[in-house]
Amino acid sequence: MTLAAHKILIIGGGFSGMSAAIELRKRGAEVDLVELDADWRNYGAGISLGGATLRAFDQLGILDDFLREGSAADGVALHLPDGTPIGLLPTPRVARPDVPGGGAILRPVLARILANATRASGTQVRLGTTFTEIKQDEEGVEVAFTDGHRQRYDLVIGADGLYSKTREAIFPDAPKPRYTGQAVWRAVLPRPETVKTAMMWMGRVKPGVNPVSATQMYLFVTEHRPNNERVDPQDFPTLLRGLLADFSDPLLQGIRDQIGADSQIVFRPLEGLLVPQPWHRGRVVLIGDTVHATTPHLASGACIGIEDALVLADELGRTQALDTALRAFQARRWERCRMVVENSFRLGEIEMTNGSKEEHTGIMRTSLMALAQPI
User: Where are the beta strands (DSSP E) in 146-190?
Assistant: First the structure.
């Protein structure tokens, strides 16, 4: 089997980096993965996933693990603040005919599933370590690490997220992450019997819920915050309950009453980034949030990062010419990633300006259908 790079370093142990390791090991590459966090933690509450992500899980070999530990269902039910149904966004079944078109799972659970698969693949994982220097020539890349080691590689993959040090080192003039004017709240709560699929309410803020297991769900609320200011975690429960005060739907009010200090509340200002191509320089290539960090409006940020990993491995396996493989990777990924980032930004703008609900629903519908197409 041809492979454009035989010895590969992945910088960053998030979803994209782990997925790249798993897929590249299938093709026979020797893979090292370094992650700065010595405990390899993944913070957060729940994460919503579309059918395209479940299809990627199937290729990675973790779909059954997800179905066992997470939750999957068809459609996204839309409601007015009083609970009146206004529509159902379709979520095509693209993973397998017997697998629903969407779902959700607790972030730490998904991270554990991917970490187990990464180790099982034979990837050499080194925690508490990252790079200090990257030097490349026509034949390879020499990397110095914080633990004092030096190693030479055929290819380096930067998958170290929104504030990537790899991006800063390789593309110092690349755009910086920007605050979008919105923030998202997430909390983990008991799952009522009536919550069987993802649900959203269209109001002054945009709350929603999604099952993450047989007994739990996560609540998410997107709000307009003109200034990116720190919020005291002690105030999280009161502020989150306050955002739901105007929604009279008895289901949502019952959910509101359950919010407390033990609800694993996470508050995150929404930032985004779209780095123009090229996404590689010589023998260093960037994937995932490192080059296309998006807001969660289409529940597809993790999806397009994981897809990057699959496409990159596919193109590296097609040829022994590294530059050819990296150019082909970029060509396959640009339009899909651009669509997710820019459409997500537009959805946020509509929400902040109380714009057209029809445009909002239309963008979500067309985007989800586009994501169902092959990668």
Answer: 150-153, 155-158, 178-190
